[in-house]
């Protein structure tokens, strides 16, 4: 009877709002969650995205891409492990998605493009982006469809450096310089995004939590989830540090 009661209690317990793999985190290390941006694709079935990184005190641990398909109540990691890096941009055209990841340990490093064709359920490495100099870093990314995309890069070591544009017509497998590049798109608010129906999603970092809010037109904001900032390893997963 006691065993039955315990099983029923566990079954009734609410699932945690986010599931994070331990990856390369060491036992006893504090792991910090950082969100760089929020993405809301036009296709509802693609879900909602939070992107950024997990870090230990000495360096970024790995790039992080979280997906929610229940309106922001629960989040799941969907990106293959890319260590010492962070997700910089996420863009969707229909169910075709692209995530640009940059190595950010001890200065700007290699840039890797990830792609999805199933509305964000699974992601695969598409390839590396070429750099003119190693210190180049993405300023913006834009996609016309699942094949044609442009990334604007600037030299992080040069003040007021002009942007260099590279383009692909095969989904990110190969890239070429644009002699007459289009203007760099204006920057978007990094921690808020508006969905196709006008719903505003906003991320607010706080001392101990990261607040994710959803706001309908004319309505007060609704807190969908509070994500802990600090985590620790427990077995093969990360759990809130307390």
Automatic annotation (TrEMBL):
<keyword id="KW-0732">Signal</keyword>
<feature type="signal peptide">
    <location>
        <begin position="1"/>
        <end position="24"/>
    </location>
</feature>
<dbReference type="InterPro" id="IPR036278">
    <property type="entry name" value="Sialidase_sf"/>
</dbReference>
<protein>
    <recommendedName>
        <fullName>Exo-alpha-sialidase</fullName>
    </recommendedName>
</protein>
<dbReference type="InterPro" id="IPR015943">
    <property type="entry name" value="WD40/YVTN_repeat-like_dom_sf"/>
</dbReference>
<feature type="region of interest" description="Disordered">
    <location>
        <begin position="168"/>
        <end position="199"/>
    </location>
</feature>
């Amino acid at each position: 009877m006691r065993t039955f009661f315990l099983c029923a209690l566990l079954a009734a317990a609410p699932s945690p709002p986010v599931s994070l793999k331990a990856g390369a985190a060491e036992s006893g290390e504090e792991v910090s969650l950082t969100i760089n941006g929020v993405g809301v694709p036009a296709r509802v079935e693609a879900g909602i995205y939070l992107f950024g990184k997990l870090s230990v005190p000495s360096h970024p641990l790995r790039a992080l891409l979280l997906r929610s398909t229940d309106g922001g109540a629960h989040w799941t990691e969907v990106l293959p492990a890319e260590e010492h890096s962070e997700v910089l941009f996420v863009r969707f055209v229909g169910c075709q998605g692209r995530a640009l990841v940059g190595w950010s340990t001890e200065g700007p490093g290699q840039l890797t493009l990830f792609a999805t064709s199933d509305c964000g359920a699974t992601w695969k490495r598409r390839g590396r982006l070429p750099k003119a100099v190693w210190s180049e870093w993405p300023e913006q990314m834009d996609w016309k469809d699942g094949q044609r995309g442009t990334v604007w890069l600037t030299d992080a070591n040069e003040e007021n450096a002009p942007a260099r544009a590279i383009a692909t017509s095969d989904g990110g497998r190969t890239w070429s310089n644009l002699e007459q590049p289009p203007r760099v798109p204006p920057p978007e608010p990094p921690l808020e995004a508006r969905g196709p129906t006008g719903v505003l999603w906003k991320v607010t970092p706080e001392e101990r939590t990261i607040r994710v809010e959803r706001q309908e037109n004319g309505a007060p904001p609704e807190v969908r989830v509070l994500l802990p900032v600090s985590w620790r390893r427990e077995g093969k997963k990360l759990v809130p540090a307390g």
